[in-house]
Records
---
Amino acid sequence: MQENVVYKAIKDGESVFNQRADKDIERNRKGNFELLLFDKEGNKIENANVEVKLKNIDFNFGANIFMLGQYDDEERNRLFEEKFCKLFNSAAVPLYWEGTEPEKGLLRYDADTKTEVYRRPPADKVMEFCLKHNIRMKGHPLFWHEFIPRWLPDDFSELKPYIEKRFKEISERYKDVFERFDVVNEPSRIYDVYMRDRRNPNAKYIVPEDDYCLWIFDLANRYFPNNTLILNDTVQASFTEFCGKYSGYYLNIKDLLNRGARIDEIGMQCHLGDNGPQKVYNSEMLYDVLDTYATLGKPINVSEVSIPSKFGGEVDEELQALAAERLYKVCFSHPSVTGITWWNMPDDGVLTTKRVAFDENLPSTGLIDGDYNEKAAYKTLNKLINTEWTTELTVPAVDGLAAFRGFFGEYDITIRFGDKKVKETVKLKKGATQFKKLFI
């Protein structure tokens, strides 16, 4: 493993990591459940064994699903689906305006749409896949000033009716299926001239009004009353420029909340290069950022994560795996964090851009390499998510009571006594010890 600034930052934060991570996971992500077992006559059931298996953890381990069905090679399409479902329970569904309506009136939501847009599978197709595999969905994004179709007007006041029409269409299709939406994406970059050339010199780019976030969140509140609404901003805004409660992103959120914006979650992007920002690689600094934003009283969604597997031009998959493990453990341990979304799962699924620094599109930031082999980071996350952070055990019923401690989430329960087998589903939620009486 290379002795570089990334490894040094990881080592510098190791003491706080060791003090907090595992202890806080036990404290913040697990709870106690007691089953009281009775027969039909109300007698306590003895000599029963209760099998407990976590089915859906109460945390979003996600990735973008932009490469679903995007390969000419059907075997690679199959592998993408297999690797995705093995690791993730949540998907960021592409709703970029250029991909949903590339030409005025030409909507690309239907699964059988004939108009192809790379890395933009139709939302209906993604929805069908996610429902089949019990994967939660987040729409990304409802509004972004980039990746705008060229037919839209440049003036934001003229654009507003089109935005409302778009929100109405998305609401009618997906508000009852998607859990959450990134409502506004990267507001800190609306005046970043460099970003206007992300794809090509003629790329469409909208400069909204200064107060556009408040207007758009009010609109989202009307069309998505029961969905989680997220304000999502860059790694620079979230981490690089962090200076406590004087951070620009912190103050922006606080101001919007004070003026009545319904922001349900704080989205914090985490796209990392091979030498920073240290506030993420160093666990002590990362805890400081999360603790500070938690004082706003809103959950935190670590919305886009990428960590390279090349450092200083040299491949180092073990360092990528170590950095990913630290990031995931810190975030999973923190009580305010609701989910983590790795951005590009495969190396060959990144968007080609001219950027070379802290970018989700660095070609080594995938968890799967170019030959579709699992990198060390994929294997590390798989061990955490599917082995360490799950609950599967068998407990005996003593005097009619079967008790267990496990991760918060939905459980399949199988009760065996004598020649009987009874199946139940229970939900272990945050709070005091929960009870359930079963008459079987």
---
Amino acid sequence: MTRTSAVESVVARLRAGIRQDHQPGDLLKNERLIAEEFGVSRNTVREALIHLEAFGIIEKTQRGPRVCAPSVGAVFHVMDQYFDRSLKSCLDLLDFRRMIDIGALPQVVERIGDADIDRLESHLEQMHNSLTAHEGALADYAFHNEIIRISGNHVLETLYKVLSDTLVFYMEIGKSNPVNREKTLEDHGAILRGLRKRSLEATIRAFRHHYDYSERSVRAAYEKAAPKRRRMETEP
């Protein structure tokens, strides 16, 4: 049996045992006992536990591996590394945000309260006061993440959180242009006004206008950077 297949075998057996015999919070046996039970090396067990930890099935503690509560978040943390930095991925993520944000708005408008409006205003103020594109992107992400939180959809909220690094990266692209920065502030202000009025129609209109502009600004940023990328690709 190769090392890889041995690790996979231990992972499968541990997963089956966790599913059948354990609840979140239960401690598993330590590495030595698992290795003795399965007839493998401790290094093999260690790699299997790392795999299970990466997928959020267990977590390491001083007392040994502990079973975690089920979460979709860990799966998307693993997936996040596969997003490249291409224009196609950027536009795909923009469409993802457009569909998620606009799709969640009926619930947001129904549930939003004055305290939620205050938090959104705070994020918009942080965007206004940001000194760098990265700071502005972080505040932009927080604004949109707050809207998803208000919707009450836990799965959507989890997706936004685990993709935070990737989303912030792409939000930062357009903010390198001062013109885009000012337009983004205007767009978010229009979104906030629609939410303050509890107007679904006005908020959807503001979101669509914002994402249409965001798509144009992202395309322009990539087109501007294209000659430099081509030079770097051809240089020896």
---
Amino acid sequence: MMSFLPRRPFRLTIVHPCVGRRPGEKRYVRTWQMEPLPAAMLAALAPADIEVRFFDDRLEPIAYDQPTDLVAMSVETYTARRAYQIASEFRRRGAPVVMGGFHATLCPGEVAEYCESLVIGEAETLFAEVIDDYRHGRPQPVYRATSRPPLTATPDRSIFRGKKYLPIRLVEFARGCRFHCDFCAIQTFFQATHSHRSVESVIGELRQVSRAKQMVFFIDDNLTSGMDEAKELMRALIPLKLRWVSQMAINGAFDDEALDLMRRSGCVGTLIGFESLDPPTLHQMNKQFNLMRGGAREAVANMRRFGLSVYGTFIFGYDHDSPDTVRAAVEFAHDEGLFIAAFNHITPFPGTPLYQRLESQGRLLYDAWWNDPRYRYNMIPFRPSTMSPEELTSLCIDARRRFYSWSSIARRGVHAVNRRDAFVARNYWAINAMHRWDISGRNGLPLGDANWRGELLRVGGSAVAQELVKR
């Protein structure tokens, strides 16, 4: 009699690459160790009958020698070099690699050199097809999304079991942003469009995954890009009695109905990209809307009226910036009692108007800074027009030191909004202390693992993939 052995399940390995490691370093930066939702989304989009393994390069060694039928990675610009190292290790062992994510869409020709298949755009309508093609031995070099997909999948967080992430729950409501900021890769990737999940699916997910006293972070690029939908979500959040934070544009700070709903639904505060207090710089950023209704100072005052804290971000290196610009931003952040703040130089991400302008002006210091072995995290990859790269770096670090000095933390801590209850006050001191510790902790971090001694493997015949990418 003929015996039939059961077919083994298809084996998918999902990897989340880290940014990089210094020589001899094994421990990774703790402040970056949040749940990687893109990996959980890939697991959710995979067919139910396949075997999924997940490795987080920030937390654990990758088991390269475990047999697998396909390796999948979502690649960001900062993780691209490390992703190519990981892909080379798997491909050296005969395992094919598929890459997607922001960087794969922004730099498809480059990424295509390091993987068998490339996913351009969002993966919702494509990933099941990728798996099916590999199952049947007919993989395509390029899979391209032709439109924005419906956001119906819920992340499969079972892949996170046993891994020690920061105690904050990440949830996605919407993707994209309708603004056209000069420096923003988000608007390039999504072509300044915005889409969202149904409120019912988000509430259902929160009922399953949220825990008492655990902060929820809505990772939306701009929660209020679709204001009506955001308000609908906030109304539905009220009965859940959560504590949550998110990111929004400055226009949300002038919508009293939205702010009231945020307060009632458990919002503790939001990140607002002020970026600059200088009107000519905001115009160059294509972010002149930040000047609306009195600008940043009035926005913070209105947030305070509703008991909401502000995480303000500032970026420097535009053509009108100077040491006085940086000092003014730090003084503003002090005086207004921002919960936390970021003071960073601009980074020209590929595909953005900023990158294209600097490239056309011959001001980029690297052909592709994210893939250059000389580049280190927080280096300036371009020539500023009013100062040297070294001076700009020093100004940003000094701004962080001043803002996260103990005297500044204590001064800002007395603001009522930063001590509105015991939970907020406790987190204020803990988060500010963490940022103080990390003022320059990431400076000089190589992109890619400096301990890796392998050889980057480029895909043979990748010219075919690149030709398809151009179509």
---
Amino acid sequence: MDGNGRWAKKFDHPRNEGHRNGLTAVRETVEICSNLGIKALTLYAFSTENWGRPEDEVDFLMRLFEGFLRQELPTMLKNNIRFMIIGDKKNLPDFVQEPLKEALEKTKDNQGMVLSIAINYGSRKEIIMAFQQIVKKIQEGKLSVDHIDEKLISGHLYTSELSDPDLIIRTSGEQRLSNFLLWQSAYAELYFTETLWPDFNRDELYLALETFSQRERRLGKV
């Protein structure tokens, strides 16, 4: 979800106003995807590299996330959405931990769309952690090297309960993955749009889905 800062600059607003307006796009995207029957939606909210941003901006983003959890939990429950986190939640501020735990616990048995928020997430770190876990199991005699395959590695990632993504959408004109789901998106279709995230609406999402539906998914086969 890229382009909040540029959106704010475009309208001569503080950067945090861009992040605040980005929540509107989040709510609309979640609602549409849930209504369309899409099984899983993952939103990249905060990367491991984002801790390097100014302290006041990081604090604002975390408090925005706290507010999102508190305000949207009733909607998630109403719409049977299961909420998940991918990333290292241990390093998140204390004021986030309580509403995060509540959202995870209260939605864990929901059978509708899985909404994953990638926060304090970095794909390279995720892969390193997976291999550390696998190596430890080998050292403890629980696994052998011969057991290492794609399924085993996938099972040690944050996304072990999710299918690999079919479509990755990146807004604001950037054309790279930026350390997002590197292992999982081996065969994902990539869609790039110049639209800044706060301006990403129903029409933009439908256009992305329509474009995806017209692509031929061979997955390396003929």
